[in-house]
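Example record for the data management plan.
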Amino acid sequence: LVDSPGIDVSPNLDLWIDKHCLDADVFVLVANAESTLMVTEKNFFHKVSERLSKPNIFILNNRWDASASEPEIIEKVRKQHLERNLAFLVDELKVANRQQAEDRVFFVSAREVLNARLRKQQGLPQHSGIGLAEGFQGRYFEFQDFERKFEECLSKSAVKQSLSSTRKEEKRLQASCEPSWTKFMSRQHRSKRRSRPFGMSKRRGCSSRSSSCSY
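Corresponding structural encoding:
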């Protein structure tokens, strides 16, 4: 797990990507839901996509609880964020189709989830407490949905990686065995040629140039 403090703070971004990101199974972009996707965020994933074929990317629109104070526009804002996120994944990066991308975008409040789980550890009800904004339960369930799909993505990636490693090992074994097999078949072929009769003895109806006889 590599946690970047920010994608616009490293002067050697390309080197950082090559060092830490080429073996990554999943990327999670934690965006601020109070603003749109930043150019630096987009540029980072464009660079990643240049090095990896269709990386698995999740987008978390964090601090979504801040929108709870404006219920009259919350759905409109959510739709705008969703459309921009989908356009980024589908049209710009081309890492997923629209249906796949819709399962990669979430609206959450990480602080709310953390506080709820701390309360659970203390034996307190996690879905109630001081300071919970309207719609907390829905945001909490959406975070759980993200966790499930994140785990599924990691599992599928692990299976693909395992199959890929198996295929590479099979190819390596095949390549190492092929010269020995070729030599073996060549010896067998030469042995058969030496032991094969070239003609028949001069019996009645037999030809020394033919292996067929008539009696």
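Summary line stored alongside the record: Residues 13-169 form a domain with the Rossmann fold fold (CATH 3.40.50).
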